[in-house]
Write a structure and sequence with these properties.
The structure holds two protein chains of two kinds.
Chain A (H helix, E strand, L loop, with lengths): L3 E4 L2 E4 L5 E7 L5 E8 L3 E10 L2 E4 L7 E2 L9 E3 L8 E8 L8 E2 L3 E5 L1
Parallel strand pairs in A: 2-11
Antiparallel strand pairs in A: 1-3, 3-8, 4-5, 4-9, 5-6, 7-8, 9-10, 9-11
Chain B lengths: L3 E3 L4 E4 L4 E7 L6 E7 L6 E6 L4 E3 L2 E6 L4 E6 L8 E8 L6 E3 L3 E6 L1
Parallel strand pairs in B: 2-11
Antiparallel strand pairs in B: 1-3, 3-8, 4-5, 4-9, 6-7, 7-8, 9-10, 9-11
Classes of the chains: A mainly beta, B mainly beta.
Amino acid sequence: EAQVTQNPRYLITVTGKKLTVTCSQNMNHEYMSWYRQDPGLGLRQIYYSMNVEVTDKGDVPEGYKVSRKEKRNFPLILESPSPNQTSLYFCASSVQGGEETQYFGPGTRLLVL
Amino acid sequence: RKEVEQDPGPFNVPEGATVAFNCTYSNSASQSFFWYRQDCRKEPKLLMSVYSSGNEDGRFTAQLNRASQYISLLIRDSKLSDSATYLCVVNFPNFNKFYFGSGTKLNVKP
C-alpha cells in the first residue's frame, strides 16, 4: 500500500530534550516536506527536500532541522524543543514539487511542557 | 498579511444545497493552486488541482481568477459526507514552497 508513515503519532516531552520525528514514504517520491498545523494559522511549511541531500527552508524553519540521506526518509529534528513548538506535525511527499499532488502522513501530535 | 486567506466559516448548509468558497492569495507570481480536504485534524487529502481554464470533477468545480488573485470552489448537491474543512493551497515563488490557507469549515446538515 502506497503511504507516508510518521512516528511517533503522539509525543509528550519536556523543554530542551532533543527529539526526532521520523517520516518515511514507499512511493519513490523525490519531494518531501514537513508542516506544522496550529489553530487559526493553517498548515505552515517548515522544511522541504527536492531530493537526497537537497533540503531548503520553508516558512517557519526556526528551531527545526532536517536531513535527507535516503530518498524514502525525511526525519524532523527538534534539538531543543520549546513549548511554542507544541503542534500537530504532518509530513508529505510528492513525485516532484510544483504541480504534483502531495500525500500526507497521519500526523504527529507533539506537546512540549 | 497572510499569503493565503480564507473565510474560516463555518458554512452550515442543508443537504442538496450549493455552496461556494473563495480563497485569495497575495503573490501574483503564484504558480500552482489546489484545494485539499481535511477531516477533523486528520491528514489533508487532495480534492482537486485548479487550472487556469477552470476544472470540474463531478459535483465540484474549481476556478482561478489571476487578475483578482483568488480561487474558488463550488460544491453542488451537498452531501453529509462533504462536511469537512477545505484548505486552499498555493505555491510560490520557486515552485516548491507551499502556502496553505487556514481552511473553511463546511457542515452539511440533514
